[in-house]
Amino acid sequence: MAQSQYKVCVYAICKNEERFVDRWMDSMSEADRVVVLDTGSTDGTVERLRGRGAEVTVETISPWRFDTARNRSMELVPEDTDICVCTDLDEEFHPGWREALEAAWMPVAGQALYRYTWSFNPDGSEGVVFWYEKIHSRHGWRWTHPVHEILQWTGEGAPGPKVTARGVQLDHHPDPAKSRGQYLPLLELSVKEDPTDDRNLHYLGREYMFHRRWDDCIRTLLRHLALPTATWPPERCASMRYIARACAGKGAYQIARDWYLRAIAEAPYLREPYIDLANLLYERGEWDGVLYFTGCALAIQERPNIYISEAASWGSLPYDLRAIALHRTGRVAEALEAARAALALEPGNERLRGNVELLEREAAG
């Protein structure tokens, strides 16, 4: 690697993440320094981090808020740092990230955009992928919101420009056993603190959907859609889709269908609303509708780099739904073609393999 021209510091928060320490420290070792705020680990996280060379401060954050913890961890970063890199211990950079970051950075830069794989499919392929921006200059920033925290510029004038750090890839490998129980009350607090923040309302409505609190979901997302600042079509589309799911959860299928159609009209270039509606029609046995909307989805060939782009819509599901609908309408040869396409995207799925074998036997007569 060429002589470094910038001082790079990784900072993080953690609690009881001993299992991730070695992988994370291996990944972050390209930085000049690694500083960590431990918020109360009871396992060997602190000792293991220190043994690997991280500078660890142990403090309790009470009441717990992610933004407070992030800001405290950022205070641990040396003042003369040029580039601050905020990651979590369940994340991992691909090797060579620092060189790629420095190649993109400039002395006046404010933030860096980089590719982030938030989830992986069971077969190891990428799930949700988007571009992230938790790399930033040292001064003038603070984290805001109790959960789903974001960087906010608080310095004088405008922040420096964002640079795109192509070649920087960060992967997220979360602990599936870790509870999301704290998210809902923190999101409710976030909306209480700022009822006009459209992002907070969208996330809160989505969280109510995860908890199957259908009426709260609908009420909150209608508030989101009514805000004058809620103008980003993909997020508006997602709110409409979540309202539709809540309506379907209440048994109001006709209303759900209408909301899915509104979601399609809001962002017709996204696969997700077409696939959601195809799923609803699949449950109702409306096979021609399944074929129409899966066809619309598959006609969209370019996947956007946004967090709302869901893995299922770009995996085997569109072809799987289509194969079933074609089979139910007596088109075995076309069903076999779609089933093979689904299996090609998820070769380890035994159900999909069984579908192909069944259709091959039918096609053979």
Short description:
The protein has helices at residues 21-28, 45-51, 66-75, 97-104, 183-193, 198-210, 214-226, 233-249, 253-266, 272-284, 287-298, 317-328, 332-345, 350-364; strands at 8-14, 33-38, 55-58, 83-86, 91-93, 111-117, 129-136, 141-144, 150-153, 162-172.
What do you see in this structure?
The chain has 14 helices and ten strands. It folds into two domains: about 160 residues, Spore Coat Polysaccharide Biosynthesis Protein SpsA, Chain A (Alpha-Beta Complex), CATH 3.90.550; about 130 residues, Alpha Horseshoe (Serine Threonine Protein Phosphatase 5, Tetratricopeptide repeat), CATH 1.25.40. Helices cover about 45% and strands about 15% of the residues. The N and C termini lie far apart (about 60 Å). The model has no long low-confidence stretch (mean pLDDT about 95). The chain is globular, with a radius of gyration of 23 Å.
Comma- or semicolon-separated keywords:
14 helices, alpha/beta, two-stranded antiparallel sheet, globular, 16% strand, Serine Threonine Protein Phosphatase 5, Tetratricopeptide repeat, 365 residues, 10 strands
- Here the CATH topology of the largest domain equals Spore Coat Polysaccharide Biosynthesis Protein SpsA, Chain A
Mean pLDDT: 95
pLDDT < 50 stretches: none
User: How many independent structural domains?
Assistant: 2
Helical percentage: 40-55%
**Neighbour order of strands in the largest sheet:** 3-2-1-4-7-6-10-5
Biggest β-sheet strands, sense, barrel: 8 strands, mixed
H and E string: EHEHEHEEHEEEEEHHHHHHHHHH
